[in-house]
Protein: (S)-3-amino-2-methylpropionate transaminase
Organism: Psylliodes chrysocephalus
Amino acid sequence: MWTRCVTTVAQNAIKTGSSRAASSIVSGEPKEPKIVTSEIPGPKSKKLIAELDSVTQSSSVQFFADYEKSLGNYITDVDGNVFLDIFMQISSMPIGYNHPAMLNVFKDEKRLKALVNRPALGSFPGEYWPKKLKDVLLSVSPGLPNVMTMMCGSCSNENAFKCLFMTYMKHQRGENVDFSELEKSSCMVNQPPGAPDLTLLSFHGGFHGRTMGTLSTTHSKAIHKLDVPAFDWPTASFPKYKYPLEEHFKENKAEDDKCLAQVEELIEEYNKKGRPVAGIVVEPIQSEGGDNEASPEFFQKLQRIAKKYGAGLLIDEVQTGGGPTGKMWCHEHFDLETPPDIVTFSKKMITGGFYHNIDQKPAQPYRIYNTWLGDPGKLFLLEAFLDVLKQQNLLDQVNSVGAKLKSGLHDYEKEYPSLLNSVRGRGTFLAVNASTTALRDKLVGNLKKKGILSGGSGDNAIRFRPSLTLQQNHVEIFLDRFGQVLKEVK
Amino acid sequence: MWTRCVTTVAQNAIKTGSSRAASSIVSGEPKEPKIVTSEIPGPKSKKLIAELDSVTQSSSVQFFADYEKSLGNYITDVDGNVFLDIFMQISSMPIGYNHPAMLNVFKDEKRLKALVNRPALGSFPGEYWPKKLKDVLLSVSPGLPNVMTMMCGSCSNENAFKCLFMTYMKHQRGENVDFSELEKSSCMVNQPPGAPDLTLLSFHGGFHGRTMGTLSTTHSKAIHKLDVPAFDWPTASFPKYKYPLEEHFKENKAEDDKCLAQVEELIEEYNKKGRPVAGIVVEPIQSEGGDNEASPEFFQKLQRIAKKYGAGLLIDEVQTGGGPTGKMWCHEHFDLETPPDIVTFSKKMITGGFYHNIDQKPAQPYRIYNTWLGDPGKLFLLEAFLDVLKQQNLLDQVNSVGAKLKSGLHDYEKEYPSLLNSVRGRGTFLAVNASTTALRDKLVGNLKKKGILSGGSGDNAIRFRPSLTLQQNHVEIFLDRFGQVLKEVK
């Protein structure tokens, strides 16, 4: 039922562009949010938070969820509140809660055994592994022939960074030139030339993870970085656009040019002082640091700069990848001349990892290696998700549902210009700015009280990160509640 | 059957110290290894390696395994070879292959839903989470009251390192003193004072991971580190003992003192030059870099030095934790005055993470945080493993089986003094040196041809990393095959 009816309903919704609530594609999904406690978190959540706090840092917990009752686009908390979830575990649940296709994965004995007998994939992979990498991960590759699996976004980026450094040094050294004895001995005590003083260029507002390599390229919030030593690497400005885009074409193009000029200046400066830039690390939309976007032309030119200076281009699709922008990979909107050198992923992709070109493949074993190198269990879940995505044309649905959501947000920014501005994004991967941080926090908080679970991005933005199964009727519910909230705070 | 007979058989084996092969505790486990191909990897594995190589770096792959057929202590490859596995996925499978207790975990609908609806544990944990952290992880804590879950050993260490830095700075700043504006702005561009120039002291031969923070404390093999920029942090010598220990007490004590003096000198040197040592990072046995061990007195004194200089002590039990040394945590053999500040784990613990004291708990949210913060599915598997460990007194079995294995190795080093030396380790977490690297590689290779899957550690050691279900009969099989190999190469 669940899997049968979805295509038809979704396609009808697309065809008709109906503004009436389409019937839910998730059998048994709640019809609307329901808030039963006067405060959120409610009393049961509060008790559990206190219990958790005796064991671990718990002050980031918003509420405790009931993952048996949560369904489709709705998350239920332990106090019985039911939220329409447009944040979806920080953009990570691709097709919502308790999707039958996902629940079925480990009912298959072979997959269960692959999950439980977790191998060291770099040394003793299971028979199924090469075929699964091809059929599942490479079936949605953004034009890159190789893939490495990892555990999460941070370690995907960490290992991808290492590939950028190794490839840069391979080019310096010559393709088949062996490491020198001095390189081998000096790297053991963290000194050049074996541990060379290479750098990566990243962008203000970017987020690439919280481990110490990736944290050195993360520049979104101070609380992520305070007290942690960091590599002294170059940071360039990322474009800050004026909205609506069609009215600010010239200024935004100038902004692109200014940022790109800075990228080039920084590369030249760092190369000159003997700290070469081995790679450029960038999100296609700055997904934590304010949902800042840049034009296809910006990314095309950025790639040309990377090529000019022999720096690898890494596009971090940890949050944008897996379909929410209406394409499998957000950077596919940019019409790049060639694929990026590396594309990292995690979150909606369920497994972490990165695609890369052959130039980025390490020639020697054990350079990009760890005990588990990912987890077959996660690849089987990804397979189930991608089957649903393909069978049900979820990317089309994302585009039509996203268009409706964006249009509704535009209406509100016109109605409340002192409260909202800068509606932006692609697919359902959207954002809107509130006029102040305090207002943004109030809007997110009041939405929650009305049963809508959303999230903030950067200082002022509300970010939309629903699952790919969000439909027209969910958008209508959201817009209705958002309208109420805006009316209350104006 | 599997779960019923084990205690009795194991206890009988302990009581009798029987040298006859006890009947296997794993119902249906092969009686002995069986090699059916003339080369390993066999033809089917070779074909799959070629297939894998078109998709990803594959030259570290030893063979492809059949995880449906592998059982207990035996791993079966796709060519039908059956190996007694004393390497166990680089020390990570705690109770062997296809253990019924593990296969049962996700037959429970509630646990399956916790696995499939993977939450952002720092924001929307499931109702079950606080109780599971307490009942499962804290039930085996080495005296530390708090725990954070992570995904793997590297990210456990990365995040634990961050705690060391944050705690050090908290002590500098004063408990409730807020960050300065300068700290907040400077950290965003990777500069002090916000991103302070703190260091961690680690040891030559140590291994703590391959992400960029942990890699800066890893000093086991050049191939792990070449071409990757590293933090310029102090590295001290780790004791290198002469064996047998009882004949070299004086020299080994002098070795301890020399290394400890160097630790103290390095801390003073780095503190003096404004690059304070915020923590000491050490394995209880250097598990990748040669299975180097140090005395309880060494670790007691190391802890005193750490306390003297206000540096946190992190004991990395990623490979040693979970029982293989005959105690749940290897450092519990050391009778430390207080627990270490932080103990990291992964591998046999199935989930990554770290235990810590309250001083190391960040006061603010989002400082130690990421999207998933571990994986409930892994905690449920750990719960099943720990139930088996407790019910079947596996730590006792590890001690008795390890004693037999160690005694057999001692016999061989006496018989072949020009080939073998320095038998060492605790429980079944043992090692023996070959006289040269070439010989070690040959022994490991020839063992494999006789159906024993083992691994190397450092330059010269063979390391033993069996599951906790290794029994006397497996040891007899190993010793028999090892004897044949030694006879052939002498």
In short: Chain A has a mean pLDDT of 94. Chain A touches chain B through 125 residues (CB under 8 Å). Chain A is about 40% helix and 15% strand.
